[in-house]
Amino acid sequence: MTDTIFALSTPPGRSGVAVIRLSGAGSGAILDALAGKPRPRPREAALRRLRDRQNATLDRALVLWFPGPASFTGEDSAECHVHGGEAVIEGVFEALRAEGARPAEAGEFTRRAFENGKLDLTEAEGLADLIEAETEGQREQALAQMGGALKTLYEGWREDLIAILSAIEGEIDFPDEDDVPGALAATAGPGVGALIAALETHLDDDRRGEIVRRGFTIAIIGAPNAGKSSILNRLARREAAIVTDIPGTTRDIVEVRLVLAGFPVILADTAGLREASDRVEAEGVRRALERARDADLRLGVIDGTDKGARPPDALRDGDILIVNKSDLGASDSLGAIAVSATTGAGFDALEAELSARVAARLSRREAPALSRARHREAVEAALSALRRGRARLIDAPELAGEDVRLAIRAMESLTGRIDVEDVLDRVFSQFCIGK
Ligand SMILES: Nc1nc2c(ncn2[C@@H]2O[C@H](COP(=O)(O)OP(=O)(O)OP(=O)(O)O)[C@@H](O)[C@H]2O)c(=O)[nH]1
Ligand SMILES: [K+]
Ligand SMILES: [Mg+2]
């Protein structure tokens, strides 16, 4: 029998209402002790006086009773919606401890839900992402994953693999006398090929799902005094970076977070690119180039009043070129967006272009996106096992069977069908207490 656990499921601190959650076999008896009998009807709120063992009133609260298995965790569970004051919460905690419940660890409610088959590992991750979601695009992706989009995909592939494995094993155990060589390649080959193609497509996603989670990164780069920091400040609508007329003002990377097209964006201002005059600036330039390399998109800035200005070398195909200082009568440059960080001219067009780029890269497609490095690693492992298996389908079917078995294991580690303790710890430790 599992412990009965409790936690505050709303954020700590003062609030109108605080929700204290309870789960485990002792939940019903503990609820009776605090809220009195009769127990409320399942899943219906009832207003009750909460009391401790000395019959002192702790609060008047809404209480709910969720008998297992039809509860979030699958166990008997209860909720007390108390007034969100520290003394009330502490008093209820004290009374719960006195009745034998213990404080929950981070993610323990969700882990129990997983262990009771209420959700698979990808759905649990989706729930963690939903709690963390700050933008519409993140919410959409998290809801899809929590609703089983990845689970359905991975479970489907697992079933396909099992069918392939049984075809291979059948051939090994009962080889047909008059089988032509390569019979197995004919029966199992197409299925393996189709799965390899499906896994390749799933992996070849421009890291869309991972970027939706962590944020799309944009680096502003260009020569000193081109106006990079001024542009960052205008896009951020605050004075995040220092602006002066001294070339080489910015050294460290200055990051601001924006929401564009419903997605999180991390915009980075960098040091002006030039042959640096001192060690501090040289380090700034090194960091600028590194950030430019790693970013999902680069904004190259040139000073329109500088006739000899050229686009930065670090700019790549598909990046955006901005000609700044249009208020000083800078000439239009082909394919570039003309702006003035001083007057704000051209920023509507710039923001529209940035939003369009982010949306084009991150908008939801038909197929669910993998959203974590964990998914990528496991799908890559399955893919390389399958490629190996396909190559030895004819000459070494036993070994090909082993490869398919490895691919099945990779799928099972994704959904949590097989116990991989460190994976479970990693997934559930991301939750905060009370989830
Ligand atoms: N007239 C005009 N001046 C601008 C504009 N944008 C920036 N400036 C000025 O240009 C100078 C340099 O601006 P910054 O934003 O510091 O330029 P930066 O590219 O960040 O420079 P470093 O950090 O030194 O590489 C400052 O004096 C700004 O006020 C603009 O659109 N028009
Ligand atoms: K400057
Ligand atoms: Mg600067």
From TrEMBL:
Cofactors: K(+)
Residues the entry annotates as binding Mg(2+): S229, T250
Gene3D superfamilies the record matches: P-loop containing nucleotide triphosphate hydrolases, Probable tRNA modification gtpase trme, domain 1, tRNA modification GTPase MnmE domain 2
Record's keyword terms, sorted: Cytoplasm, GTP-binding, Hydrolase, Magnesium, Metal-binding, Nucleotide-binding, Potassium, tRNA processing
Claim: Metal-binding is one of the keywords in the record: yes
Co-factor remark: Binds 1 potassium ion per subunit.
Enzyme class: hydrolase
Subunit text: Homodimer. Heterotetramer of two MnmE and two MnmG subunits.
Record's protein name: tRNA modification GTPase MnmE
Natural source organism: Hyphobacterium marinum
